[in-house]
Automatic annotation (TrEMBL):
Residues 9-100 form the Ribosome maturation protein SDO1/SBDS N-terminal domain. It comes from the Eukaryota. This is Ribosome maturation protein SDO1/SBDS N-terminal domain-containing protein. Pfam families: SBDS_N. InterPro entries: Ribosome_mat_SBDS_N_sf (IPR036786), SDO1/SBDS_N (IPR019783). Residues 106-124 have a biased composition (Polar residues). Residues 95-124 are annotated as: Disordered.
């Protein structure tokens, strides 16, 4: 969801009930860890956007659609975004864009505009 030189960080959650993959965008892995240690931190300081996306069983890298209320109800038992996001933050996996490529750098080993992704386990 972010553009420019900022790093894209998202949380991936594989739903055990439906098998769908849910994704939320967060400001940083550090903000998520701080929230886990101090629940008084507002979610607005952790989330990049108050949206929950679903990739229809294609992992965190699949085509992302907005999750419908019915999909959220089926997997999480609620469609209240705050409750769903908290569950994803608690049980999801952080995925960070690890690109060090500069704007316009064509000598990258991944090719122009391609960035490598790295999953980071931050469960405590």
């Amino acid at each position: 969801m972010t553009r420019g030189s900022t790093q894209e960080v998202k949380m991936h959650y594989k739903g055990p009930i439906t098998g769908d993959d849910y994704v939320i965008y967060i400001t940083s892995a550090e903000a998520m860890r701080n929230w886990k240690n101090d629940r008084t931190i507002p979610l607005v300081d952790v989330l990049d956007a108050f949206f929950v996306f679903v990739s229809h069983k294609h992992g965190a890298q699949g085509l992302l659609d907005h999750a419908s209320n019915a999909q959220l109800e089926s997997e999480f038992g609620t469609h209240k975004i705050e409750d769903v996001v908290q569950k994803i933050l608690e049980n999801g996996q952080v995925i960070q864009n690890k690109s060090s490529e500069k704007q316009g750098d064509r000598n990258s080993t991944n090719g122009p505009g391609v960035s490598s992704l790295n999953a980071v386990n931050v469960h405590q």
